Amino acid sequence: MHPPLVTSAHRRLTFESGEPAAARRGLDFLRRTLTQWRPGTDRAVLDDVALVAAELLANAVDHTDGPTAMDLILDTRGGRLRICVADSSPAEPRILAVLEGQPHHRGLRIVDHIAEAWGHHGNGEGKTVWADLCLA
């Protein structure tokens, strides 16, 4: 299970199975939501948040039937954002070995490097992969 947040705001986006533009729609949702919740957030922080979200969404697109939902949870007391991406696969995400000259298998390494914490849990229909990021 993931560590608790004091939820100050929560938004959810749902996806159709196999939705071709899921990743783009998820990133647009993230940008719109953060602009409303935290106007004036440093550009470098926003770039890191978008990169982590893109990796979580891409993993759902590449390794499952696509994301089923994306939740954004804001903890204003701690200045943290939790990004959750749900999919229909029960397979646990894992950091894979990177093969020299291959462009794949770097997504969770990036998430692990940027996020304060990340993990996954079963959700009854598959799994949810989450990442916590500091917005300060």
CATH architecture: 2-Layer Sandwich
In CATH, what is the homologous superfamily? Histidine kinase-like ATPase, C-terminal domain
For the termini, the CA-CA separation is 24 Å
DSSP, total strands? 5
In terms of per-residue confidence, which ranges show pLDDT below 50 for 5 or more consecutive residues?
none
Helix fraction, binned, reads: 25-40%
Mean pLDDT: 91
Class per helix and strand makeup: alpha+beta
How are strands sequenced across the largest beta sheet? 1-2-3-5-4
Total tally of structural domains: 1
CATH topology: Heat Shock Protein 90
What can you tell me about this protein's structure?
The chain has 136 residues and is α+β, with helices and mostly antiparallel strands. It has one domain: 2-Layer Sandwich (Heat Shock Protein 90). 33% of the residues lie in helices and 27% in strands. It is built from three helices and five strands. The protein has a five-stranded antiparallel β-sheet with strand order 1-2-3-5-4, covered by helices on one side. β2 and β3 form a beta hairpin. The longest helix has 21 residues. The protein is globular, with a radius of gyration of 14 Å.
Describe this structure in a few short sentences.
By secondary structure, this protein is α+β, with helices and mostly antiparallel strands. It has a single domain (9-134), classed as Heat Shock Protein 90. The chain has helices at residues 22-37, 43-63, 107-114; strands at residues 9-14, 67-75, 80-87, 117-122, 127-134.
